[in-house]
Amino acid sequence: MKIKFCGAAKMVTGSCHLIEYANKKLLVDCGMRQGQDTKTELGEDSFPFDAASVDAVLLTHAHIDHSGLLPLLVKKGFSGDIITTEATSQLCTIMLPDSANIQEYDAQLENKKRQRAGKKLIEPLYTMQDVNNTLKLIKGVKYDETVKLSDEVTVRFKDAGHLLGSASVEIWITEDGATKTLAFSGDIGRAERPIICDPKFIEQADYVIMESTYGDRNHEAGTNDEKEAQLASVLRSAIARGGNIVIPSFAIGRTQELLYYIKRFIANNTVKGLEKIPVYVDSPLGIEATRVYERSADGYYDEEAMELRREGSPFDFETVNFTRTADESKLINVTPGQKIIIASSGMCDAGRIRHHLKHNLYQKNATVIFAGYQAVGTLGRLLVDGAEKVKLFGEEIRVNAVIEHLSVFSGHAGRNELVDWVSAITPKPDRVFLVHGEEEALDMLAEAIRSLGYNVTVPNLLDEVVLTDGRKDGEPEAPSVQAPAADVESVEELTHEYKLVEQMERILKLAEEMSFKKSPDVSLKLDIMENDLAAFADKWEKMFE
Questions:
Q1: Is the pLDDT of residue 498 over 60?
Q2: Is 504 helix (H, G, I), strand (E, B) or coil?
Q3: Which residue has the higher pLDDT, 373 or 412?
Q4: pLDDT band for position 476 (50/70/90)?
Q5: Residue 326 maps to which CATH number?
Q6: Residue 347 vs residues 97, 217, 287: alpha-carbon distances, Å
Q7: Segment 354-360 long-range contacts (CB within 8 Å, at least 24 positions apart)
Q8: In this structure, are 148 and 203 located in the same domain?
Q9: Which segment, 72-76, 320-324, 484-488, is predicted with the most confidence on average?
Q10: DSSP state for residue 301 in the 8-state scheme
Q11: Phi, psi for 170 (deg, rounded to 5)
C-alpha cells in the first residue's frame, strides 16, 4: 500500500491524495489549485496519474480547493463513484456548476483576445456538461455510517465541524490479509462555531493525513461569545465611520455565519443602528448555498441553530436583500446611504466582490472586513498585509478604507486544536503526514506534534510513500485491525429519497391560495415568484440537457 501526495503538499489548495492498494486506486479529494499553487509542475489542469485508472473518490467537503477538479477528473476519463456526505453532495450541485460557468466565461474572454491576435484558441478547464457528468457519480452518506466500498475497503465519514457536511474520513484497507486504517482529517473546524456541530474526534488510525492551515498559530478567541463580541465591536466602529461595510466572504459557510450573527445582533439589539442598515448578499452562489443550509438542518445543525430554525430561517431578517442579477449588483454602489455588502469570493480573486472593492477601497469612511484565511498570492492577502495600492480591472486603486481581519472567524482549527485532534487518536498512529499548509505552519505544527512523541512527515508535492508501520529493527509487527461492521454493504445501496413532487405541491398550493388575495403587495410577490420559478426551470432544463 502506498500514498502519493498530488496536491496541497507544502501548499494550501488543491487537496488530492492517491492511495494505491491491491492493484486498485482510491483518491481522497480532487481540489482546484489557487493563487501561487497553480505555478507548480502540475499547473492548473494536469494530474500525476491516469484519471481513468482511479476506482473511486472520497470527498471530504464541498469547498472548491477540495472538490473543484472533480469535473476535470471526469473529463479525463474517471467513471467511478464519488462518495461524500449528503449535505456535501447537495452543495456540489451548486458549487460545481458555478465553477463551470467561471471556466467557460474566462475561456470565452481569453479566446476573444486570442482570436484578435491570431493565436490558437483554448478550451475551458471543464464545461457544464462535464459537471453534469460528475454530479451523476456522487453518492451521499450520513455521518458515522459505515460503508463497504469493496471487499478490501470500508469507509466512514465523521463530522469535521468545518462546513455544512464537512467530514474527516476513516478508511479501512485490507491488503495481503492485513487491515490498516488511514484517517484523513479533511479541514478541521473549531468548537463553538455557529450553526454546525463541533468537530468529532477519530479514535484509532495507523496513518493520519492532517491539515495544517493554522499550524503556526492559535486563534485569539475561542468561544462563540468571544467571536460575537469581536464582530460586534468591528461593526460598531464601521457604522460610526458612516461609509459602506464591505465583507469579502466565501459563498458557502462564511456567508451563512455572517447572516446568522447579524440576525442575532438585530434581535438582541447588540449593535446599535444595525437594524437600520440594509444588508446585501451579492452572490448568486451564496444565495443558493443559503437555501441548501436552510433545508439541510437535520443531522447537521447544532442545538442552538435548531432552536432558531423552529422560529423560521436562521438567515433571513427584515433588512437583508438577496441580489441575483448583475443589474441588481450594479445598483448597490449607486444606491445612497450606508450599507453592508457581503460578496464573493472570500479571497477577492474573482467575483462581484472586486467591483465593490473598486468602488469602496479609496473611501476613507469605508470598512473592509475579512472574516477568514487569505492565501498567499491573493488580493485578500495583499490587503490584509497592508498594501497601500492594488490594481482592479486595470486601474490602480489607493487603499484608504479601514481593513479589518477577524482571524477568529476562520473555519480552520488553530495549532492547539490541531494537536488536540491528533492526540485523541490512541494508540499513537504509526505515522502522521502534514498537508494543506504553508511551509512555516507545517514546520511549526510538525515540531509541536513531534515533541509529543509522534513520527511526523511533511511530504513534498508528488512524494510517494510506501505505508509501512514505522517499526524499528527487531520490533514486533503492529497487529492488524478489524474493520467495523458495515451499515451499508455496498455503494449500490446508497440512494437518496427525492421529494420533488412534495415540494412542487407546496408551491402550487401557495400560488393557488395567494391568487385569491387582491392587493398590490400580493401581486408583486406573485410576480417575483413567477420569475423565480421561470429561472429555476431554465436552470434545471439546462442541467439535464
A1: no
A2: helix
A3: 412
A4: low
A5: 3.40.50.10890
A6: 20, 20, 18
A7: 354/379, 354/392, 354/393, 355/329, 355/330, 356/244, 356/246, 356/282, 356/332, 357/246, 357/248, 357/390, 357/392, 357/397, 358/392, 358/393, 358/395, 358/397, 359/333, 360/243, 360/244, 360/246, 360/333, 360/401
A8: yes
A9: 72-76
A10: B
A11: -100, 130
Question: Which residue type occupies 521?
Answer: D
Q: Are residues 270 and 145 in the same domain?
A: no
Instruction: Quote the pLDDT of residue 222.
Output: 61
Segment 337-363 shows an average pLDDT of 94
* Domain that includes residue 62, residue range: 2-218+411-468
- Give the span between the Cα atoms of 530 and 536, in whole angstroms: 10
Widest pairwise Cα distance in the chain: 87
Q: How far apart are CA 545 and CA 539, in angstroms?
A: 10
pLDDT given at position 496: 53
Q: Could you tell me the three cell numbers for 355? A: 467591483
Q: Are residues 420 and 327 in the same domain?
A: no
Vertex 460 angle, CA 455 and 466, to 5°: 55
CA distance 437 to 345: 20
∠ Cα 391 392 395 (to 5°): 70
CA 105 to chain centre: 22
| Total structural domains within the chain | 3
Of 453, 468, 483, the last residue of a domain is 468
Are 251 and 367 in the same domain? Answer: yes
